[in-house]
Specification:
single chain; 258 residues; seven-stranded antiparallel beta sheet; 1 helix; elongated
C-alpha cells in the first residue's frame, strides 16, 4: 500500500511540475510517453472533452488517424470481413465493391430473329462465382441483375459463339453485351462480322470468342441483363473442348469502380 501511495504521489508531482509523464523514459515528448508495451483490457476511448467521454466505437471498427492535433476516430470498413470482393476507397471510406461474376453451365441456343427482334437474355448463366450483394438472378432461360448504388462499373464479358451465315450466304454480326431492361437499350455491347464458312448448324463449325471490357455508369433504379442477338441461330458455348480436355469459356462480370 505504501508503494502505491508513493507511485501516485510521484505521478501527481510530475503532473504539477512537469505536465508530462514518462514511463521508462527520462525525457517524455508528450503528456504521457510510454517507452514499452501497452495492455488495454477494456474499452479504448478517443475524442471527448472535459465534460464528455470519448467514443469507444463499435465492434469491427478500426482506429483512424486524423492528423496532428486532432483526435483519432473509429471508422467502419464496410463489408469486411463478411463480404467477398475488392476493397475500394469511396468518399473517404473503405468499402467492398459490389461484384458479380457468373459462368455458364450449359450451351445456350438462340433462334435467329426471335424475341421480336429484341436481344435475348442469356440463359444458363447460373454458376455464380461471386454475387456479394445477392443482386443477380440466373436460370436456364434468363438472367437479370441490379446495382446497389449509382456509380461507374467495370464490365468484362467473354463468350464463345458458334453460328451460321445468313440465308444469302453472307456473314452475320452477332452482338453480346449488357441490356438496360428499364429503357430497353444496350448500355454496353460488342459485335463483329462472323464468317461461318461451310458450317451447316449453329452448334458446329467455326467458333469465335467475343470479348468486351469497358466501364459504364449504372443506376440503382434500373434492371440490367446479359444479352445476345443475331439475325440467324447462334449458340453460346459454356466449354471450350479439345483433345487435351475441356474448360469453362463463357463468363460475365460486373464490378463497381466508383
Amino acid at each position: 500500500m505504501k508503494k502505491k501511495t508513493i507511485l501516485i504521489a510521484s505521478i501527481f508531482c510530475s503532473l504539477c511540475y512537469h505536465s508530462q509523464i514518462g514511463i521508462n523514459t527520462a525525457t517524455p515528448m508528450k503528456n504521457l510517453h510510454v517507452n514499452g508495451s501497452l495492455q488495454v483490457v477494456n474499452e479504448l476511448n478517443v475524442g471527448g472533452n472535459a465534460s464528455t467521454a470519448g467514443s469507444a466505437g463499435v465492434a469491427g471498427q478500426v482506429l483512424k488517424s486524423n492528423g496532428p492535433g486532432n483526435a483519432p476516430t473509429w471508422q467502419t470498413i464496410a463489408g469486411v470481413p463478411s463480404s467477398t470482393g475488392t476493397v475500394i476507397a469511396l468518399n473517404g471510406q473503405f468499402v467492398v465493391a459490389q461484384e458479380i461474376i457468373v459462368q455458364m453451365t450449359n450451351d445456350f441456343i438462340v433462334t435467329g430473329g426471335s424475341n421480336g427482334g429484341v436481344p435475348v437474355a442469356i440463359g444458363s448463366l447460373n454458376n455464380e462465382i461471386v454475387d456479394n450483394e445477392n443482386m443477380y438472378t440466373g436460370s436456364l432461360s434468363t438472367n437479370s441483375f441490379k446495382v446497389s448504388a449509382d456509380g461507374v462499373y467495370q464490365i468484362m464479358m467473354n463468350a464463345q459463339l458458334s453460328t451460321i451465315n445468313t440465308a444469302d450466304g453472307s456473314p452475320s454480326s452477332p452482338v453480346v453485351g449488357i441490356w438496360d431492361d428499364t429503357i430497353n437499350a444496350w448500355v454496353a455491347r460488342v459485335n463483329d462480322i462472323y464468317w461461318a464458312g461451310a458450317s451447316s448448324g449453329a452448334g458446329g463449325g467455326p467458333k469465335q470468342t467475343y470479348t468486351l471490357i469497358t466501364s459504364i455508369p449504372m443506376l440503382t433504379s434500373h434492371t440490367y441483363s446479359f444479352r445476345v442477338y443475331n439475325t440467324v441461330d447462334v449458340t453460346i458455348r459454356y466449354l471450350s473442348s479439345g483433345a487435351t480436355g475441356s474448360g469453362p469459356v463463357t463468363q460475365m462480370s460486373v464490378k463497381r469502380l466508383k
